[in-house]
Design a protein that fits this description.
globular
Amino acid sequence: MPIKPENKARYPKNWKAISERIRFVRAGNKCEFCGAVNYEPHPITGSKVILTVAHLDHTPENCCDDNLRALCQRCHLRYDSRHHARTVRTTRDRNSGQQALELSRPPEP
């Protein structure tokens, strides 16, 4: 998955080398969860597989091998789904709190 610009500084300078080693050397160019092969049709979805590297603890700074997995898009999205739901909920709550604050302010003259 692409790194969001606001998170880029959280990754080590050698992230590209780490990612390539995990995907191509350790995982042998296959998803470590379902075995889907990189650049081939996914056995379930039929879409072209692009391997990504997932941080199991969702912390980009933690690049220990036991925290990283080479995953196809389907497995990565499924693995991250609860984390994404929490993040969306937190963002929504923060934004609604900000909107409430803005609405409670008296209008400027």
